[in-house]
TrEMBL record:
Presence of the UniProt keyword Transcription in the record: no
Domain of life: Bacteria
Residue span(s) of domain CBM2: 12-122
InterPro entries to which the protein is assigned, alphabetical: CBD2 (IPR001919), CBM2/CBM3_carb-bd_dom_sf (IPR008965), CBM2_carb-bd_dom_sf (IPR012291), CBM2_CS (IPR018366)
Record key words, sorted: Carbohydrate metabolism, Glycosidase, Hydrolase, Polysaccharide degradation
Organism this protein belongs to: Nonomuraea insulae
Annotated protein name in UniProt: Cellulose-binding domain-containing protein
Keyword rRNA-binding belongs to the record: no
One Pfam family, short name: CBM_2
Amino acid sequence: MISAAAATTVTAHAAAAGCQVTYTLGSQWGGGFGANVAIKNLGDPLASWTLRWTFGAGQTIGQAWNAAVTQNGSAVTASNVGWNGSLATGGSTSFGFNGTWNNSSNPVPAGFTLNGVACTGSVTPTPTPTVTPTPTPGVPPVRTVRVFWLKPSDVANDQRYPDGIAKVMQEAQRFFQQELGRTFTLNSPVVEVVNGDQPRSWYENTPNCGEKYWWSVCNMQAELRRKLGLGAPDSRWLNVGEISAEGDGAGGGGGNGWVILSGHDADGAAGINGAMNRWYGGMVHELGHAFGLPDATSTDGTCMSASFYAYPNCHFSQAQKDGILGGRYGSFLS
């Protein structure tokens, strides 16, 4: 019997994410084999799942059960069937298949992704950065919300972007005060403009975080973390990043002390992509995720549901307020 298990937690999208996958080779015969794949969700609850991996020795999949499985070359995609798509935190499911091999080598796949999140090792928290008791010149005080506009190298500077993003953040600041009786502190200046190392097309077309939906924003987050020494999460600051890049995706989300948004949100904040209420509500929604809230399960009038599109006609429920104030970043509010 051959088995492989991998687990990790990652920040890259709108919710806390992590997974463990165990691939077990149950039986093997001339030209054929059977395998079982077990999935454990370590992150926020999932309503559906897609698992991907790549075979390394020409294996092919024939019959599968408990999952819809397709193969393109060596790349395999397995998605839930109707009854096993929902995975609670800590929840597990499994599926199996029969396949063919080359009668010489049948290695376990080297890596798996679940909904675009890599399962690549033991669960290891991001190291907590050291907190400096007194602010270093040029570095914002701790417990500040830092906001970045990353401008790709081939995008012209346009003051509408930092000015507009600042106004969106100030409206969100006002909303938190209204709802919670407390609010967060913004840096001064509110928006830090970061000149990107790469042209727009690089951020849009360089794979990162799995699905193309995430490429622009994950490439932005990686560059901000590298240049500015930011953690994910970071005990010093809650971070908001927007990039003037998007491509085929429409990436954006919040979680684990971060909001990461792509070109249409940056354009909206700059006043060139529709009514401002949509962008105010979207920022409140994603900041709710950054402060630790999950999506609401229905359009229920809270800003953590699709009701944020009707902003300012959405609110935080009492449970959501308690979740923010009692969460990792609750102490950032005063």
